[in-house]
Design brief:
By secondary structure, this protein is an alpha/beta fold. Helices cover 36% and strands 18% of the residues. It folds into three domains: 31-163, Rossmann fold (3-Layer(aba) Sandwich), CATH 3.40.50.2300; 170-285, Response regulator (Rossmann fold), CATH 3.40.50; 315-432, Response regulator (Rossmann fold, 3-Layer(aba) Sandwich). The strands form three sheets. Strands 2-1-3-4-5 form a five-stranded parallel β-sheet, sandwiched between helices. A five-stranded parallel β-sheet has the order 7-6-8-9-10, sandwiched between helices. It has a five-stranded parallel β-sheet with strand order 12-11-13-14-15, with helices on both faces. Strand 3 (92-96), helix 4 (104-112) and strand 4 (122-127) form a beta-alpha-beta unit.
Length: 434
């Protein structure tokens, strides 16, 4: 197991696993607290996951989701939500920020750091002071609490339902001729996107006025374009759920144009500095699955997301009674510039979390003698230093229900042995890189 953990390679790109037959797995899934649709989900259904701590409000969203054409699931906690994402592969999420076990932003970061889940559109539902952070982190939209009426939620969910239906997404490119533009367009050639090149600000305004643009790619000082030119539509018409995402190309080393730095309104602005990053950010903002991308897109996305240094300096505690497993995992993590401490039993792990400063995450083997990983995680959650610490269960059994048992014991995530390097790093980036 140790050798395979150290040498594991990412699996070939493929579509997600088919939906589980929820009726046969009921006893293995998180408790159905809202009377949701998990027992009637069939392959081909459009599933919405509602992650909401307020049960009464969750039931209102559940009602609205059904009216909009979704089958809907409800989770009151972050860890259970990740289990439902794993088991049901929802088409979209609504996400409360204030959850009992973790901040909702950690769920958003976790989903968006993993190439197998970052395409899932997430609409954050929270108090208005969370709006900018949510949109910068990759949320497709934002609903401010308290909602004025159920109609607000219904409108947002109708937009979400339309967005996740099959069909070409519209990308408008407003860039001057350059090697960067040609490399970017070449990477998209043959994709399922509807690419429109705007030759002038007037054409761009006409395209934006149609209200069907899913992403705009432009640059500072493009033919006199100003941020105000992008707000040709009343922001209230888009900002309820889907502000206009704008990728702003700015070569590395160039200082931001002040008028763009202060751009506000019904847009979400993301600067990028290369053709490769344009490709990756486009896939991110358009919520594209890996399987739907061209090979050039995939190459760019995978190289950007596998870039070394994202985890450098983070400290991880590895808990395993087999030193070979510790060595294998440590070899992978240290190659990323991470710091590693280890424990061979649960009691030593508890002492380290209590006394070792700066531990950012724990990889917890479940099958250990005396105090097993389940009991150790329960004890860690009682510690002040362990209440908000990412605990990642690592198990060799890979039995049905293991994930749910680990979550119930306090894990936020789950890996099965032999641990795949790509999945290990994706999980750690999801919890540690914001």
């Amino acid at each position: 197991a140790a050798g395979r953990a150290a040498s594991a390679q990412p699996r070939p790109l493929r579509d997600p696993e088919p939906i589980l037959d929820a009726a046969n797995e009921e006893e293995l899934l998180p408790l159905n607290v809202a009377g949701d649709d998990r027992d009637s989900v069939l392959a081909g259904d459009t599933v919405l996951l509602i992650v909401e701590n307020d049960l009464a409000f969750a039931k209102l969203l559940l009602q609205a989701a059904r009216q909009c054409g979704f089958k809907a699931l409800v989770s009151p906690s972050g860890a259970d939500a990740l289990t439902l994402v794993h088991d049901y592969r929802p088409a979209a999420l609504t996400l409360d920020i204030h959850l009992p076990d973790m901040q909702g932003f950690r769920i958003l970061d976790r989903l968006k750091a993993d190439l197998t889940t970052r395409h899932i559109p997430v609409c954050v539902v929270s108090t208005d002071d969370s709006r900018e952070r949510a949109l910068r982190a990759g949320a497709i939209g934002f609903l401010a609490k308290p909602l004025q009426s159920l109609d607000d939620a219904s409108q947002a969910l109708r937009e979400l339902h339309r967005f996740v239906q099959p069909g070409a997404r519209k990308l408008v490119v407003a860039l001057d001729a350059s090697p960067v533009r040609e490399a970017y367009l070449e990477a998209l050639r043959g994709s399922d996107l509807r690419v429109v090149q705007a030759g002038s600000p007037q054409v761009l305004r006409e395209e934006l006025a149609k209200g069907d643009v899913d992403l705009l790619v432009t640059e500072e000082q493009w033919q006199g374009l100003a941020p105000a030119d992008l707000c040709v539509q009343d922001p209230a018409e888009r900002s309820l759920c889907r502000p206009l995402p704008v990728l702003l190309f700015r070569p590395a080393g160039r200082s931001p144009d002040p008028q763009w730095a202060l751009a506000e309104g019904g847009v979400v602005l993301r600067p990028v500095d290369s053709a490769k990053r344009l490709v990756d950010a486009s896939a991110f903002m358009l919520h594209r699955r890996l399987a739907s991308m061209t090979q050039a897109e995939r190459d760019a996305v995978e190289s950007i997301n596998a870039a070394a240094g994202q985890l450098a300096g983070k400290k991880v505690l590895i808990v395993d009674d087999d030193v070979r497993n510790i060595f294998a995992l440590a070899t992978v993590l240290e190659s990323q510039g991470m710091r590693v401490v280890s424990a061979e039993n649960g009691r030593d792990a508890i002492r380290l979390v209590e006394g070792e400063p700066g531990i950012d995450a724990v990889l917890m083997d479940i099958m250990m003698p005396e105090m097993d990983g389940m009991q150790t995680m329960r004890e860690l959650r009682k510690l002040p230093a362990g209440k908000r610490l990412p605990l990642i269960a690592v198990t060799a059994k890979a039995m049905k229900g293991d994930r749910e048992k680990c979550i119930d014991a306090g894990a936020w995530d789950y890996l099965s042995k032999p641990v795949e390097t790509a999945q290990l790093l994706a999980v750690l980036r999801g919890w540690l890189c914001r």
